[in-house]
């Protein structure tokens, strides 16, 4: 089971603003970028999330309807699309084609993340909710691509803390429980025939087990038990349904793609590894039954090809699209018609259809045609040393017209990512571009614990919230000052979720370093945070205690790294934004912080949206948040 995929999560992005800083007298000031309306960065894309029907005759996409993202279907070769859904309260969270005639999609209510599964025919008829249960979360386990009228879903209907797998007949609506989760299973895997044969379990709270059975009639066997720090994470069965292919860091620091004898719990061979980065993605051709590529992230996404056909396809696409990053996001069942997505650090890119039979590459749409990439800023990979000798990788975005050599004493927004066991990557980020357009330099860093850099770098974050993890952020800020890029008097810190927590701790630990802070759905009290997590996180609490801290055994340490108890150290103004229905970081986390700040007489602004959860999904709420942030930063830095 992958460390960073223990549970299914849906996440979002966030943003900020101001004026260009000066440069030294000996240099010519760069040309100021044209100020772009805030709404252009944060409004819904024109069309996105393109997919293709199994027979290749239709493509689908999401597009705004009454400011909410809904699903549309269009027959290839025709100009008109049919809108299948009419959701007006909240965006659809995701969708897919189970067969040629239907679309299935997930949607929650007000950000509570209790997703329900809906189905609709591609002519817009027969809209049905398959999982219309109160306070129950639906997750997709397997789309059973070769069984067109069935999918496998997970429901925490029987027990809010665990998900049982159900086989759902999407023609009749009939659901059959395939196994009763005993309470410790965190994932299930099916073979190429749609049979449930692998499960991932948590044992004793902190160890993980790989369970296997030869047939669905056999008893489960524990074939491998390890600490959660070491994992063999199967992705799919070999094509004879005997061994599995997946990512493993057993006996190594960096995860590698391996073939694994699942029946005997033994690694057969390493298929691809990289000395510097975890390799966790692996792809295959269902039709040709071959592995095609493995993927990992250095400063951007990289691929290793196992297969000449796949390599040749990418080479062909690069002939026409080589100025951009290229991703194949979908294909038909015959694997000869593909949906292609391009992107860069300065563009959300475009969607294309490539028909291999005719060698025709056709642009479908630009994702955000109102964004002129020539007005956007470049995102540059950087690295610096932490105070205890770790190499920290990150990204620096300077306002358009500046270079590392010409940028002097700019206003800066330091932007630690959420997770925290996640990482920032290279690509188009609307909030980063918004900040740069308003004249800020933006520093992002993959502090210790960020994923993709190996086991040791990840483990270096354990019980380091607000401590060495925070020091990595501070060291990045100091590095930017030492480079002469940051104006020491005009530095703000901003982040969402864990990044919001890091914002609060930054103001606590470095009151003279940051002139202002913006906390978006961030943790403030480590004790109440762990008490109010969603019920389906509870089986992993012991693991959380080892990674973050035990509320009893580590109570003194957790109190020291809870910003709400350190408000007396904060001197800089703070802006907090929160969704009232957030199931991960309860609204009480922000309420506590605001109350404590007000009691101390410190300037704090508070924005709450009653119809949002862990991040603002609705377009008008995003506008309100970034508008308030822009004014806040303009006032304080």
Radius of gyration: 25 Å
Shape: globular
Mean pLDDT: 93
Total helical segments: 11
- Count of β-strands: 35
Distance between the termini: 44 Å
Structural domains: how many: 2
In which order are the strands of the major sheet placed? 28-29-31-30-32-33-34-35
- Main β-sheet: number of strands, strand sense, barrel status? 8 strands, mixed
- How much of the sequence lies in strands comes to 25-35%
* Low-confidence spans: 1-29
The portion of residues assigned to helices is 10-25%
By secondary-structure content and strand pairing, the structural class works out as alpha+beta
CATH superfamily of the largest domain: Prolyl oligopeptidase, N-terminal domain
- CATH fold title of the largest domain: Methylamine Dehydrogenase, Chain H
CATH architecture assignment name of the largest domain = 7 Propeller
CATH class of the largest domain: Mainly Beta
Note down, in words, how this protein is organized.
With 637 residues, the chain is of the alpha+beta class. It has 2 domains: 3-39 and 377-636, Alpha/Beta hydrolase fold, catalytic domain (Rossmann fold, 3-Layer(aba) Sandwich); 46-366, Methylamine Dehydrogenase, Chain H (7 Propeller). 17% of the residues lie in helices and 33% in strands. A hairpin with an 8-residue loop joins strand 15 and strand 16.
